[in-house]
Amino acid sequence: MPNDENMDVENIDEELIENESSQEEQDGQEERQLTQEDIDNAVKSRVGRVERKAKRQLAEKDREIERYKQLESTIRAGLGASDDEDILEKVNSFYKEQGVDIPKYESKFNNRDLERLGESDAQDLISSAEFDEIQSRANELASLKQNNKISKREEAEFMQLGNYLSSELKLKELKDKGVDEKILEDKAFKEFSKKFNSDTSITDIYDLYEKLNHKEVEKPASTGSIKSTVGESKVKKYYTSEEVDKLTSKDLDNPTIFKNVMASMKKWGK
User: Fold this and answer.
1) Of 112, 111, 115, 95, nearest to 103 (Cα)?
2) What region does 43 belong to: left with phi over 0, alpha with psi -120 to 50, or beta?
3) What are the tens digits of pLDDT across the range 55-73?
4) What is d(CA 270, CA 255) in angstroms, rounded to the nearest whole number?
5) Dist. CA 88–CA 76, nearest whole Å
6) Continuous H helices in the chain
7) How many angstroms separate the CA atoms of 88 and 92, rounded?
């Protein structure tokens, strides 16, 4: 039989091994637990690396743009081209006179790709810039379009910015008048607005819509449909506000009446 002394030694050894193993597990758990400061420092380090990489890429892009500008300046000087002239057209004409046929440049993007890129450019600007900056960019693109120097991508950006600015200006006009801006999302109002030219004030459209909508709700046609109350022989050149109140939407479907009503509204209050 083993003596008691040997058994005690074995028990002590096993206990020491268990304690050491438990301590190692505890140490491992402590090492795996990160403090908020550790996390903040890791995030800061990661963000710093990303920012430094982005700055290097922008610096390289700036150097590339500068080289192109130097090349363009040299070519303009050599060809005697002014700043307003299209340098690519000038270069192509020069080489054509020399008997060199320059192949037409084919973009790697199709028209739809360019439109998507332009729309994305516009959305990026809208989501990150102030109204004045957006308006300034739209004016810059309008100048390019007027001079026939706008690209497909820029044209798509211009259209998107134009729609945004137009919508914002309409909202401002309605807010100044105390009208709920949700009216712009109203299906009936949208359909009604389509009758008007783009240069018609949104508040004028709203005023007329309110007049007609209010009247028709109060006095629905007995037959269940809205009929014209104005015969062709009774069409007027000038309508007062009170007379417009008596018109129906069917009356306004008559292009002559509609045109005369719009002209009359401009004279109200004068």
Assistant:
1) 95
2) alpha
3) 888 888 888 888 888 888 8
4) 25
5) 10
6) 4-32, 36-79, 87-97, 111-128, 131-146, 152-177, 187-193, 202-218, 241-245, 249-252, 255-265
7) 6
Please name which of 221, 226, 186, 193 lies closest in space to residue 208, comparing C-alpha atoms.
193
* Model pLDDT for residues 19-64, shown as the tens digit of each residue: 555 555 555 555 567 788 888 888 888 888 888 888 888 888 888 8
One-letter amino acid at 203 equals T
Which token pair is 111?
Answer: 């028209």
d(CA 141, CA 159): 10
| Pairwise CA distance, residues 5 & 199, whole Å | 107
d(CA 151, CA 97): 27
Does residue 138 contact residue 155 with C-beta atoms inside 8 Å?
no
Helical pair 131-146 and 111-128, crossing angle rounded to 10 deg: 150
| Token pair belonging to 231 | 């015969």
- Residue 157's Cβ-count burial label (10 Å; 0-12, 13-18, 19+) is buried
Unique residue bearing structure tokens 């030694």: 9
The pair of structure tokens assigned to 98 is 């020399």
Place of tokens 């401002």: 172
Q: Are 261 and 245 in contact (CB under 8 A)?
A: no
